## 1
Amino acid sequence: MNRRILLKRLTVIAISPLIVACSRSQVVAGSNSQITVTPLNKGYETWRKFLSPEAYRVLFEDDTERPSTSALNYEDRKGVFICAACYLSLFESVHKYESGTGWPSFTQPIAGHIETKRDFKMIMPRTEYHCARCGGHQGHLFSDGPPPREERWCNNGVALRFVPDGESLPILRG
Ligand SMILES: [Zn+2]
């Protein structure tokens, strides 16, 4: 093997992981392209007065609530789950399922109301998602959910509020 071929092969090997990483992030970018909500772009401090310290830490400091601590794990009525900060509707109860993880889990969000980004806080990159309106962190998206979408939107219960069918949605705030 001459030097030029060897170099070419080494380049292909070096680039391969990047190709895999990029093709994954394109999937994420695809779901972002359908955002239908105008972002508020307000400073996170704006929300502190509306929220409990625990909810603020999760929504605006990217904290994670302890598993099995949210009453929303057991919420099985029909209705809508809204952002606890700005009240934007994020998930419909028809897409909630019991994942066994201890966090409220959904198979899909309301289209255009959730934005995603890559999160490198753990060793493996993860897909973080947040309210497209106020930017409040909601949870992480995994690919081990039920068919056909096989998505698991793993949400902090404290970052959501539930509005049962028959009750009107609160006016958006912020
Ligand atoms: Zn929000």
## 2
Amino acid sequence: MPILESLPERLLLGPGPSNAHESVLRAMSLPLLGHLDPAFIALLDRVKDGLRTVFGTRNAMTLPLSATGSAGMEAALVNLLEPGEPVVIGVNGVFGGRMAEVARRAGAQVTKVEAEWGTILEPGRMIEAIRTVRPRVVAFVHAETSTGVCQPVEEIAAAAREADAMVVLDCVTSLAGRPVELDAWGVDAAYSGTQKCLSCPPGLSPVSFSDRAIARVKARSTPVQSWFLDLSLLAGYYEGEKRVYHHTAPITAIYGLAAGLDRVLDEVLPARFARHAAAGERLVAGLEAAGFTPLVAPAHRLPMLTSVLLPERVQKAGEASVRTRLLEEHGIEVGAGLGPLAGRIWRIGLMGENARPEIVDRLLAALRTLIG
Ligand SMILES: Cc1ncc(COP(=O)(O)O)c(C=O)c1O
């Protein structure tokens, strides 16, 4: 029996991955080029340009790291922090918590500013911590996928810069689904993943570092603990006139990202953001009518990730078994709650290609057949 036999078709409406567009999958079956072939380097440079547009930046050091979003998180923190340095990290969900753990393992002195899951980090509390701790880095999550909260960025970033701290922002779920403006917001390092609103498969982590961040990395007194994610070494392959081998770039994944970015840029960003916003609103209205309650206050909801408290009849039926039936009988995946929200919420993603009214209606119709 072949290893790759047959696979079911799924509509991926969980917290990621989302469905990749067929143009992306087609691009990924194109013939391989060598990773130092001038034709591939030219493609890579166009991908970097496309990423600058979606990140809202002119940062030279903008590139797709060869691993998932977690590598972007790790790269941002281990390059900008040295052992013993203070860092302030906002934690209002799983991914803020992970940032704190990565920073702790890098030997930094971590101060967490925590907020209840489902609420934003109050800028005032972050600013107070920044003024007290005087950190080298301030890190937080723009779109917290574990809760569906969209974090306001600018006020916190301004206070961090005033204190001469680097600002690190997790944009894994927000990028290409709602505005990300690194330069206007004063963010020094940001990272994302390809499997969410870019509608590509998982496997790459788009990252961007400001010149200020690069200067900080160059001024380090200790080497970056990760050889693979050391920006100074990565620059040898991703930047400059003469490209040298660092690791073998994942050619096929980069073709896919190129096709994904082409679709994003053809649609034009404001239209794409409006499409996500409209789909998110339609979903919330439909779920409320079906008895679900949004977890997050309207002003801070993410359009691409809706988290809802479950009605009694879903809890009675067993939320996991309803999700299983949705998958097996309707081919639709939605996400469960994590941490303190496990068993209490569902997380429904409308990311990239899936942020469309007909997709919302398909989910709502399937739910009606299962829970009435
Ligand atoms: C906000 C956020 N940060 C980081 C990650 C980690 O990304 P990956 O799973 O691609 O490594 C995720 C993944 O879902 C995420 O949603």
## 3
Amino acid sequence: MSMRGTRWSASTFVWNSIIQKKNRIFLWLMFWDRLNTNANRTKKHWTTDPFCVKCPAVASITHIILHCSLVDHVWNKLDIKQMALWSDDVFYFVGRIIPHFSHQRQATWPICFAACAQELWSAQNQRIFENSNTTVS
Ligand SMILES: [Zn+2]
């Protein structure tokens, strides 16, 4: 089963047994843009501020995971910062990056991406709701 007509399988990726259950549910909601980002909270009239707490950009999941100034160092450490910056969508970022990895890295990429994405999401929420300056390194 694929998602949005692309060749890679989000279902296989997300429901991979090597990923912790809490990360699987997070990833599924993220790929379907069902997380309560400021952009989505604005659409639901829960807030009037759709912007990122750090950048002058709408806080969509793509911004939070790929483009925010606070996440550059995470993707830079994995040597995939440029691919993150050039990607318009988290789903396509994940699918596009898989063929560029070695077989060993392809096997661990779901765990790595899930952990990074969930931590970036948690840090963003702490900044919004707890007025914290939490970073992910
Ligand atoms: Zn930002």
## 4
Amino acid sequence: MSITPPTNDPNKPLQSLEEWEDFMKVRYPEPKDGETPKKPAVGYAPEKTETEFRNYEADARPTVREFYRLNHTNQTHEFSLAKRREFLGLKRMTMGVWEAAEYLNQLVDDSDPDTDMSQLEHLLQTSEQLRRDGRPRWMVLTGFVHDLGKILCLWGEPQWAVVGDTFPTGCAYSDKIVFPKFFEANPDSRDPRYQTRNGVYTEGCGLDAVALSWGHDEYIYHVCKEYLPMEGLYMLRYHSFYPWHREEQYGHLCNDQDRAMLKWVREFNPYDLYTKSHTKPDAKALRPYYEELIREFFPEKIRW
Ligand SMILES: [Fe+2]
Ligand SMILES: [Fe+2]
């Protein structure tokens, strides 16, 4: 992919949603065999210092930088709550899970069609790797649905309100969040109610009570919450919550259930982040397997 400046469309600073994910792979490089991916890698090589660590910001594409600027400026606590009210009634559509994957696949952006994955291909790559590793059926299915919330983009939502690593709104920002400086432009950073350690929350309240920045994770969690086991639901809801699952931040807001579920969110992350560069899956050939898997857990149509 060539490096291009951001477009003038504030809804679409990225050429493709993949650009954000490519950036995350730079920040969190794939661990070598035997290493645990728990801690963030320091810069591009283990011997790099904290200052050099910040190079991932300096080296980010202009499109990615602009994406984070918009995300951190606009994702206020009130915005996050308003989007919940707007979308979580699930009153927009009724469709089956495979149908939703095909619907999402209409999302074509300016990325290179020869080298980049379609949305459906990313879902199938994630789920097929889970299947090859002998993971339980609910987890394979979780992999298949995990990014279906990106259909928010098809309904006109800006990229910065659909993807990006998520963070709690309504309390102090961790400096381990990517591009922390961009929070200076967020009106919440000047609201003292939102800038204490616990903010509007109480110590140990549990993540369910915390309004993370709005995006595709929270949305798909609500779509699926009646149908998948709790472990899968945590994977859906928190797969972009890197400040928690990779940076070990915000433990003071977690309860026992969150602490027990964290390991599943971490189990899932490599499948999402590192299975993107291999061969393209054959959606047509795989469809019967997934249709059957979907029927095992979901009704024919669900609400979106
Ligand atoms: Fe995602
Ligand atoms: Fe993903």
